[in-house]
Design a protein that fits this description.
Order of helices and strands: HHHHH
Distance between the termini: 76 Å
Number of helices: 5
Helix content: over 70%
Largest sheet: none
Radius of gyration: 22 Å
Structural class: mainly alpha
Length: about 120
């Protein structure tokens, strides 16, 4: 009869899997708290939507975090940019508009200089 070699038969490989799982768990916890913080910090979302997202993220954590990041991941970056500086959100929007050619390069540079020297 052939024996199946599992990770538990090799102590070094068992340690690797333990470290990998702990690392993934910590990454997921950080993402969970960032999502919860983003829900509270978002100014465009009103009370009922915040309550629904918070309930979804807490009731079904893995699926809730995944769906939130997929649905509102772009606004998470915008909220994070506006958190450090009161006008940081406008700068992020100006960069996004510039990358999609909604404004000209000159308009982008002018708004950037205005924000940096304001």
């Amino acid at each position: 009869m052939n024996a199946v070699n599992l990770a538990y038969d090799y102590p070094l490989l068992g340690a690797f899997w333990t470290v990998a799982l702990i690392t993934l768990g910590v990454i997921w916890l950080v993402l969970l708290f960032r999502v919860i913080g983003d829900i509270f910090r978002d100014r465009h979302m009103r009370g009922l939507a915040k309550t629904a997202w918070l309930f979804f993220v807490i009731a079904v954590p893995f699926l809730g975090v995944f769906v939130y990041v997929m649905a509102r991941g772009g606004t998470m970056a915008e909220n994070e940019a506006s958190r450090g500086h009161p006008e940081g959100g406008r700068s992020a929007r100006a960069q996004m508009q510039s990358s999609t050619d909604d404004i000209s390069v000159e308009e982008y540079e002018h708004s950037r200089e205005e924000l940096l020297h304001h």
